[in-house]
Amino acid sequence: MSQSGKASIKKGKPSYFMAILGVTIVLLFIGIFGWLFLNAESYTRVLKENIRVAVYLHDNARKQDIDSLKSYLQNKPYVKSLEFVDKETAKKRLIAGGEKDFSNILDENPLQASLEFNLKSEFVKKDTLESIRKDMLNRPLVVQSVDYPSAVIDKIGPVVKWVLIGLIILAIIFSTLSIILIDNTIRLAMYSNRFLIKTMQMVGATRQFISRPMNIKAVINGAVAAVIAIVIIYGLILLFEGFVPYLKDLRNNSKLIVMFLLLILIGMGITLYSTNRSILKYLKMKLDELY
Q1: How far is CA 264 from CA 12, 24, 97, 106, 172, in A?
Q2: If I label 66, which of 94, 173, 251, 291 is the partner at 20 to 30 A Cα–Cα?
């Protein structure tokens, strides 16, 4: 009799292993998608911040005026980094880029000195750059011309916009499907516990008394599944960064930590929600309907 009682208890226990495994797999895919999204965002920022604006200076511009302009730009919120490029440095860069040395042909260096700066990503917009160009040209005694890759600016905006919209749409679809999968996994795991829930209700146990231990177990299972998924994701990140070192530059540790914390909350939240749904469902069902 005791053996049959033990057997029935074992039968009544939900398959927590399968529940944890199912939640881990779903959270793993959510985490990988989140990492790709973060990398896409970081790559877009790096791409924008690599755009360089060159302010070409007159040959006869006074050093005092150049220093004044340099100081003016350094105090602007849109400037990420600023560099003064003299005529000789411009020549060395031209030769390093594969062009022939013109020293044997020309007695004088025809290249212009310039102030070159990179913009912060949020300021890389067509209107903002045009406004900066006009501002620089308002100093005709110092500035001869302003140059930046306008064709790239025209393309980068729409491309980034549609890529981010596409990723957001995919994130919504994938998250919805993931929640449904986790919900079904938990409900399937709770199915084997339906008789225990009903029996406790029939002997007078309150809903809170019945659900408390199962909710605690659900939260623990969700946290365990999230931790396993996080360990695997972090291992994959290190693996990919080993093959593609450039990915290390794109990694934002603070955002990565936030993503991992969100995975833990998602894991605990969905398992708790699905467990409560299952308990409520079996409490409302009649005994005959459980068979």
Answers
A1: 28, 10, 50, 67, 18
A2: 94
- Position of tokens 């029996």? 199
Give the whole-angstrom CA distance, residue 109 versus residue 117.
23
Residue type present at position 220: I
Whole-angstrom distance, CA of residue 291 vs CA of residue 259: 42
pLDDT at residue 3 greater than cutoff 60: no
Task: Look at 272 and 19; give whichever has higher pLDDT.
Answer: 272
pLDDT of residue 11: 45
CB-facing half-sphere around the CA of 287: CA atoms within 13 A: 6
Distances (CA, A) of 273 to 24, 148, 210, 268: 16, 53, 15, 9
Question: Which residues, listed in sequence order, are joined to residue 146 by a DSSP beta bridge?
Answer: 55
Among the ranges given (17-31, 46-60, 141-155), the one the predictor scored with the smallest mean pLDDT: 17-31
Question: What percent of the chain has a predicted confidence (pLDDT) above 90?
Answer: 22
CA proximity to 54, closest of 150, 129, 147, 133: 147
Q: Domains in the chain, start-ordered, CATH in brackets?
A: 2-46+156-290 (no CATH), 52-148 (3.30.70.3040)
| Residue appearing with tokens 């939640």 | 23
Q: Higher pLDDT residue, 283 or 69?
A: 69
Residue with tokens 């006074």: 62
Alpha-helix residue ranges (DSSP H) falling in the chain: 2-12, 16-49, 63-74, 87-96, 126-137, 150-191, 194-202, 207-243, 246-250, 253-284
